[in-house]
Each structure stands twice: as C-alpha cells, then as structure tokens.
C-alpha cells in the first residue's frame, strides 16, 4: 500500500509524437501510447533508438516537433518547463550532485527552490528520504566526493523524491554502476515505487533489468515502439524480432550459467 497520498502516481500519454531535427534525423517517429497511473514501465532498445528523447519530452527537456504529451489530462506544453520539473522526479546516469554541497543540501535543493526551507522541517524530510533510499543518517553531512557511485545514485533518488512527485523518470539510472550495486539499487527503486504508489518510467538498454523490475516493457527501434508487453509475455517470445533479439541476451547468459553448474 502507498504510504503517502501526496505522491500519487499520474498517467502519462503520448499522442502521435514525432521528434525530428534540422539535419533530418528522426529520433521519435510517431508514438502513441498511454502509461497508466501507478505503472512501472521500462523503455528498452538499442543505442540511438529514441528512448531518452521520448522520456525527455515528458519533463520538457525536449519538446516534440509534432503531437502532444499529457500528464493525467493536462498537456505538458501548457505548463512552463520549470513548474513541470518541480513536480516530476528525474534521475539520470552520473546524477549531477552539486560537488560543494553536502548530501543534506543536495537532497533539500528542490525544497529550497520552492521556498520550503524551514530548517527543522527540512532536516526531518531529509532524514526521512535517507531512510527511504537506505542510506545511513550520518552521510547527510558528507560531500558527494566522499560517497561511492551507488551511494551517490541513492542521493540522486532521494533528491528526486524530495518534493513528493507522483511521477519518477529515470534515464539509465544504474548505467555507471557495478552489477551488484546495480541489482540492489534496482530492488530499492522498485520497493520505493510500490511503497509510494509512483508512476515510474525507466530508460535502460539492459533487457534483463527491464524484465526483472518493470510491469510493462516498451521496446523501441528507430523511433518507434515495436513491442509493448509484460515481462512474462516477452519471455514467452512472439513479441517481434527486435524484442526477441533483446530477450535472447539474458536468456543465453542464464543458459550458459546453468550449463556451467552442471559441468
Ligand atoms: N540534437 C540532435 N540533433 C540531431 N540528432 C539528434 C539530436 N539529439 C539526438 N539525436 C539523435 O536522435 C536519435 C535518438 O537519440 P536518443 O538519445 O533518444 O537515443 P537513445 O535510444 O536514448 O540512445 P542511448 O541508449 O545511446 O542513450 C539518435 O540517432 C541521436 O543521434
């Protein structure tokens, strides 16, 4: 059960979205889809398939050339990018913490920007967020350079959730991490998603990660969604050539590990 009504996930819709650039590149070539409130969706595909472009059109880091994106019933184009981003959590690879600010200051930055900086309340909220991302409280006074890569990503998640957004966007959030850290952070994110009742959209090129964490997997190729299926459906096959090729990678690895066990 979600523990905080104020986070409440929202639906996201893409209506005939195209993004093309002056040099003729078509990054997104006509995407229409609806992501239901509360879903954990993974966007997978090979490099250059348009995943990041599609994600960044939700928080207006990129505006579409054609079509409309909406959160709930509200078109994102009607809100200023600044206002929009204050209510959408965004986590990306190498999270971009401010190096001269402590963990506490980094986590609280969104609260401060909206004028919500009463010291006691901020302190309490930061403590709550550190608990949520399973970081020890004593790390609040450290600088980012005094943390491991995985710990820094956890700070990034805490910062993204500080203002209680209902929507969490993640672009390769575990990209730079070792496999063990990646795995435990993935589990932590999924638990946070469930606990807060968020809508989460995660870009990854790792099909295994998508299959293990998401409820629904969208496969992109050359700017189009070529498969839209649950992990179970993807593993069963028949979700199209590109999807099958991506699923074949973790499948072959699992098979090889099984063989090693019996050698
Ligand atoms: N400013 C730009 N001008 C021209 N083409 C661009 C621009 N930005 C992105 N592209 C192109 O748009 C396509 C989609 O890029 P995008 O970053 O969305 O892919 P991606 O699937 O997220 O890739 P990756 O997994 O490598 O991050 C790519 O071919 C990229 O080169």
Automatic annotation (TrEMBL):
InterPro entries according to UniProt: AAA+_ATPase, ABC_SmlMolc_Importer, ABC_transporter-like_ATP-bd, ABC_transporter-like_CS, P-loop_NTPase
SUPFAM superfamilies named among the record's database cross-references: P-loop containing nucleoside triphosphate hydrolases
This protein's UniProt keywords: ATP-binding, Nucleotide-binding, Transport
Biological processes annotated in GO: quaternary ammonium group transport
Bilayer-spanning residue ranges: none
One Gene Ontology MF term: ATP hydrolysis activity
Domain ABC transporter: 12-247
Keyword Nucleotide-binding: yes
Protein origin, superkingdom: Bacteria
Listed name of the protein: ATP-binding cassette domain-containing protein
Organism: Stakelama tenebrarum
């Amino acid at each position: 059960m979600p523990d905080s009504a104020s986070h409440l996930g929202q639906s996201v819709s893409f209506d005939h979205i195209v993004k093309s650039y002056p040099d003729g590149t078509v990054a997104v070539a006509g995407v229409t889809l609806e992501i239901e409130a509360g879903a954990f969706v993974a966007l997978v595909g090979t490099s250059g398939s348009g995943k990041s472009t599609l994600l960044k059109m939700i928080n207006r880091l990129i505006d579409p050339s054609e079509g409309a994106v909406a959160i709930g019933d509200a078109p994102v184009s009607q809100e200023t990018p600044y206002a929009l981003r204050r209510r959408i959590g965004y986590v990306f690879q190498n999270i971009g913490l401010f190096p001269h600010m402590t963990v506490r200051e980094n986590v609280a930055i969104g609260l401060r920007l909206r004028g919500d900086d009463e010291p006691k309340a901020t302190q309490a909220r930061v403590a709550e967020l550190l608990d949520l991302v399973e970081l020890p409280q004593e790390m609040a006074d450290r600088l980012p350079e005094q943390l491991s890569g995985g710990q820094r990503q956890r700070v990034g998640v805490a910062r993204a959730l500080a203002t209680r957004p209902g929507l969490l966007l993640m672009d390769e959030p575990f990209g730079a991490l070792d496999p063990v850290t990646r795995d435990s952070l993935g589990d932590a994110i999924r638990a946070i998603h469930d606990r807060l009742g968020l809508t989460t959209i995660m870009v990854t090129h790792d099909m295994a990660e998508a299959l293990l964490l998401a409820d629904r997997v969208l496969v992109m190729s050359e700017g189009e969604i070529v498969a839209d299926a649950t992990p179970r459906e993807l593993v069963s096959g028949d979700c199209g050539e590109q999807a099958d090729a991506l699923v074949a990678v973790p499948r072959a690895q699992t098979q090889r590990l099984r063989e090693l066990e019996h050698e």
